[in-house]
Design a protein that fits this description.
With about 375 residues, the chain is α+β, with helices and mostly antiparallel strands. Helices cover about 25% and strands about 35% of the residues.
């Protein structure tokens, strides 16, 4: 059985060599990406905004003012600003909810530009359906107001309740207001006056940074780009592009570069997901999988005493124990320099599922035969 198992395993690997080479060639060609998709220009970025506000007009699904004192205080403060004195009055309304409002301020957003905002309940509100967000200032990390939000909240879920049943779909306590905020302050960033640019790679890598710099230098025709570290490439602008940097950035964004990556295996043990990069290699190693299953079943029985006897009803345990050792478990030899395609095909040929494959990969790594980094989520 051992020789047959090994022969089948090696045959499967041999048959996958041609396919693996073809797939590797295709994936390498398709792995090339634009610089626009793998890097960001430093300074051209979004800014996060946050604000606290009130949503009104809810159909009895708002905060309970007794359990949410911040909602009651905010409601009283808002009414006082509008000339309504509510101090000393016992407010008892369930149509108002305190919410947190968040948004992303796009780069180079000018005054009057509209942006989307997200609204999330802060108290014990049951749903924001049908509510309207009142004027809410949105501030950035510096404490300055950059946008004002207001509008009707659209939610993606719903909640319904009766006397004996209830149903909830999605999350009715969070919603979105499309174009719900007006930009009031611009973020100062003078792109045209820069003489030096820095590219930030989204996946830092020394080889990728060097390839980006070489590609930019080939475009410009002079050594103006230099990799500073695995995640940063500095570009000294030539004189002909000073004051006209947009044209240069447009050309740099469209350059095609093949990003490099380290050999890594990502494992999520909770869901049984395994993701392996194409650079994962395995040295010569023997793999065996034994399926030993122990099943224990409890079937207790109730024993009644004989008629007119002085006995008592008793529960007698009945246990069934079953041990199943798979006689078809195989020990297979994985030859050296196996590629990702060949490794997966070989393990699948052994009938190994995702859960067992996780343990096998960790065992191969512990033996030193897996030339890759294992990251467990």
């Amino acid at each position: 059985m051992l020789s047959i198992g090994c022969t089948l395993f090696k045959t499967t690997l041999a048959a996958a060599v041609v396919v693996g080479v073809a797939i590797t060639g295709i994936s390498s060609a398709n792995a090339a990406s634009r610089i626009k998709d793998i890097a960001d220009f430093e300074g051209i970025r979004e800014n996060q905004l946050i604000g606290y506000g009130l949503v009104v007009g809810l159909n009895g699904t708002g905060d309970t003012l007794r359990n949410a004192p911040f909602t009651r205080q905010s409601l009283q403060a808002m009414l006082e600003r509008l000339g309504v004195n509510t101090r000393g009055v016992d407010l008892n309304t369930n149509t108002v909810a305190a919410v947190m409002v968040t948004a992303n301020l796009p780069p180079f957003a000018t005054q009057g530009t509209r942006i989307d905002v997200n609204v999330s309940a802060l108290g014990n509100s049951g749903s924001l359906q049908g509510g309207t967000l009142l004027v809410t200032p949105l501030v950035a990390a510096d404490g300055e107001v950059y946008a004002i939000a207001q509008g009707s909240v659209a939610i993606g879920g719903f909640s319904a309740q009766a006397d004996a049943a209830s149903v909830t779909r999605g999350v009715p306590t969070s919603g979105r207001i499309s174009n719900g905020a007006l930009v009031e302050r611009e973020v100062e960033f003078k792109l045209a006056s820069l003489t030096t640019l820095r590219l930030a790679l989204r996946n830092p890598d020394l080889t990728t940074a060097r390839r980006v710099a070489l590609s930019i230098n080939e475009l410009i025709g002079s050594p103006t780009a230099e990799p500073l570290d695995p995640g940063t490439v500095r570009i000294d602008l030539p004189r002909e592009f000073v004051g006209n940097i947009v044209d240069l950035l447009t050309d740099i964004e469209q350059l095609i570069v093949e990003p490099d990556m380290i050999a890594r295996v990502v494992i999520d043990e909770n869901s049984g997901i395994i993701v392996m990069g194409q650079e994962v290699k395995v040295s010569t190693v023997a793999v065996a999988q034994g399926n030993l299953t122990v099943t224990i079943a409890e079937n207790p029985e109730v024993v009644q005493p004989l008629p007119f006897a002085n006995g008592e009803t008793a529960v007698v345990p009945r246990s069934e124990l079953l041990v199943n050792d798979d006689p078809n478990a195989k020990l297979a030899i994985v030859p050296g320099t196996v590629t990702l395609k060949q490794l997966v095909d070989g393990l699948n040929a052994l009938g190994i599922g995702p859960r067992d494959m996780i343990s096998i990969l960790q065992a191969i790594k512990a033996s030193g035969a897996l030339q890759a980094e294992i990251e467990v989520l």
